[in-house]
From TrEMBL, chain A:
Mode of membrane association: Multi-pass membrane protein
GO-annotated cellular components: plasma membrane
Entry-linked PROSITE patterns: ABC_TM1 (PS50928)
PANTHER family (alphabetical): ABC TRANSPORTER PERMEASE PROTEIN MG189-RELATED-RELATED, POLYGALACTURONAN_RHAMNOGALACTURONAN TRANSPORT SYSTEM PERMEASE PROTEIN YTCP
Protein name in the entry: Aldouronate transport system permease protein
Organism: Neobacillus niacini
TrEMBL record, chain B:
Species of provenance: Neobacillus niacini
GO terms, biological process: transmembrane transport
Segments forming domain ABC transmembrane type-1: 93-311
Top-level taxon of origin: Bacteria
Pfam families registered for this protein in UniProt: BPD_transp_1
Record keywords: Cell membrane, Membrane, Transmembrane, Transmembrane helix, Transport
Family, per entry: Belongs to the binding-protein-dependent transport system permease family.
TM regions (residue ranges): 34-60, 97-118, 130-153, 181-207, 228-253, 290-315
Name used for this protein in its record: Aldouronate transport system permease protein
SUPFAM superfamilies linked to this entry: MetI-like (SSF161098)
Localization (cell): Cell membrane
Length: 295, 325
């Protein structure tokens, strides 16, 4: 081995180690403060090792869990339902566009493609979803605007169908008398698991992490997702005390471990994704690399 | 009956002019299931993408909800005159372009450096570990990122003010009211969150390079550094150019979460944190100034559209395969 090789290897390891540490360290601060007692945070500030170890924040969450469980439920429902519908819509549209015998195929492809180039932006979108379709303060507001389907995924999936599924396969299914839907469900989908998994995974992450729709369309606390709850708590410390999170009366509100509780909710907000991360990491990397290649 | 005969028969039918209309109808009828499959997606695009495009006309109207959107009075370019007569228009355009421009340069350089280093790591386990950890911030929502930011920057309890600055013998800083620090803070956070994603893309490009180049270079006595400069970088140049041009095409659009959540919507630092997206949002949701907000939105959409077309034209000239269209 050349000397220069050893040096590059050494430099690479140390640089990447620092970078990896930098990626994790903020999360440790979050975790540590969720286990710190309120008094120690106020006195000593946030720190990487709890000065006074305390489960108070989590105990509080457990005893006042109604609205947190509700928010968790909202997040899970939106994520599961949204991802499922999103995948179905994307796959249907992409499959039809992938078929060379689709009449007016170029026109329909252009309709999808143009949405990548130009968009109306927030104000008209907001007016469409509040004035034309009144979805403000409904669960649909968390699912439909912006997130349900995007042209990029459709084109990505269409390319997959066109390049990975040989035309004779479809042809022979038709010869055997299978209708379009039968072909789609029993032949196309099983052959497309990689792309379905990739896009499904990205959609799941986007839905789980989305707070924007809630910020714009939801004012009713019972429809808050975890992200919206966190969002509201960060902007309004008193929210924790005033909302139905605490069933306590306002006199007891001052005893709520606000800082710790906020950090604890943030922790349980990312925990599911971090726990599942090692299992889907490989697919995520594949998905990102795939997305960068043009559709 | 052989397949050839069937095809010949079909060809005969199609060549008859009288039947032409009929066959077209038949074709459409046969494609009906495909149209049904497309329907939900197309309806969604109509509602979510195309209706708002037509809604852009409100930038030229004095919106009055009592009259309804369509019946509101036309006021021509008044909203734009107001918008560009304020200092806001300049500030948000400057911030948007400078931030995104800075992000493009810094993120690209760092991501390529990290990708090259990852590629140098021969130990599979270590390589996988580094990559997964560096990609982790990508999974964290901006709301939680703003919590992390707050844990460091909070005035009374933040880690910087409480631990780091006293250690260095510096005075406390009220981060959320001093505009001058935010260009650095936001750039740092953007890198922290985005490097992993970008470096996956560049690593994929590097892995695709033919190993024979490196073997030949090693035989010729080229060291690692020379190999990086003369083989790795030139080989991934098409990807770098494409990613950069795509980012330039999006330079008028910002990461709303980064500029809204992380500075905690603090008014004192708008001068360095306000971008077009946050301006439009605040105009719509907080100030109720729909006309101005819509004008700023249209300005963004149109300039953004032109930039996408220009950048695509440039990609196309470089390499047809990498162009979007």
């Amino acid at each position: 081995m050349y000397r220069s090789d050893r040096i590059t290897n050494w430099i690479s390891h140390s640089f990447l180690l620092i970078l990896a540490a930098g990626s994790i360290i903020p999360l440790i601060l979050l975790l540590s403060s969720s286990f710190s007692s309120e008094a120690s945070i106020l006195k000593e500030g946030y720190s990487f090792f709890p000065k006074e170890f305390s489960f108070a924040a989590y105990e509080y969450l457990l005893t006042n869990s109604a609205s947190i469980l509700r928010a968790y439920g909202v997040t899970i429902f939106v994520t599961v339902f949204g991802t499922f519908v999103s995948l179905a819509m994307t796959a249907f549209l992409a499959y039809a566009l992938s078929r060379r015998d689709l009449p007016y195929r170029n026109f329909f492809t252009f309709i999808v493609f143009f949405t990548l180039l130009f968009n109306g932006g927030l104000v008209p979108t907001y007016l469409v979803f509040t004035q034309v379709f009144d979805i403000k303060n409904t669960i649909w507001a968390l699912i439909v605007p912006g997130l349900l389907m995007n042209g990029f995924n459709v084109l990505l999936m269409r390319t997959f169908f066109m390049t990975s599924i040989p035309e004779p396969v479809i042809e022979s299914a038709r010869m055997d008398g299978a209708g379009e839907f039968r072909t789609f469900f029993s032949i196309i989908l099983p052959l497309s698991l990689p792309i379905l998994a990739t896009i499904g995974l990205l959609q799941t992450i986007f839905y789980w992490n989305d707070w924007f729709n809630g910020l714009v369309y939801i004012t009713e606390p019972s429809l808050f997702s975890i992200q919206n709850m966190l969002n509201r708590m960060l902007s309004d410390i008193q929210f924790l005390a005033s909302s139905n999170l605490g069933t306590n009366t306002s006199s007891a509100a001052s005893q709520i471990p606000t800082t710790g509780v906020r950090m604890a909710i943030a922790v349980i907000g990312i925990l599911p994704i971090l726990i599942a991360y090692p299992f889907f990491q490989k697919y995520l990397v594949k998905g990102i690399a795939l997305g960068s290649v043009k559709g | 009956m052989s397949e050839v005969t069937v095809k010949n028969l079909q060809a005969d039918v199609q060549s008859l002019p009288v039947r032409k209309v009929n066959t077209r109808l038949m074709k459409l009828k046969r494609a009906l299931p495909l149209f049904i499959m497309m329907l939900p997606g197309l309806i969604y695009l109509l509602i979510n993408n195309y209706l708002p495009m037509f809604g852009l006309i409100i930038a030229f109207k004095d919106i009055n909800f009592a009259k309804g959107i369509l019946a509101s009075d036309w006021i021509g370019f008044k909203n734009f005159e107001y918008l560009f007569s304020t200092r806001d228009a300049f500030v948000i355009t400057r911030n948007t372009i400078l931030y995104n421009g800075g992000f493009i340069i810094l993120n690209t350089v760092l991501a390529i450096a990290v990708a090259i280093m990852l590629n140098e790591i021969k130990n599979k386990l270590a390589k996988g570990f580094y990559q997964s950890v560096i990609l982790m911030p990508f999974l964290i929502s901006m709301v939680i990122v703003s919590y992390l930011g707050y844990a460091f920057l909070s005035e009374d309890t933040g880690y910087l003010n409480h631990t780091i600055l006293p250690l260095l013998g510096l005075d406390e800083v009220s981060w959320y009211s001093e505009a001058k620090y935010w260009p650095y803070i936001l750039t740092f956070i953007n890198m922290w969150k985005g490097i992993g994603f970008l470096c996956v893309i560049y690593l994929a490009a590097i892995i695709g390079i033919d190993q024979e180049f490196y073997e030949a270079a090693t035989l010729d006595g080229a060291n690692k550094w020379k190999q990086i400069i003369h083989i790795t970088i030139p080989s991934i140049m098409p990807v770098i150019i494409m990613m950069t041009l795509l980012a330039i095409g999006r330079i008028f659009y910002s990461d709303f979460g980064l500029f809204y959540q992380v500075p905690m919507n603090s008014g004192a630092i708008y001068d360095t944190t306000n971008v077009i997206d946050t301006y439009v949002y605040r105009g719509l949701m907080q100030l109720g100034d729909i006309g101005m907000s819509a004008a700023a939105g249209l300005y963004q959409s149109v300039v953004g559209f032109i930039l996408v077309l220009v950048s695509n034209y440039l990609v196309r000239r470089k390499s047809k395969d990498n162009a979007l269209f």
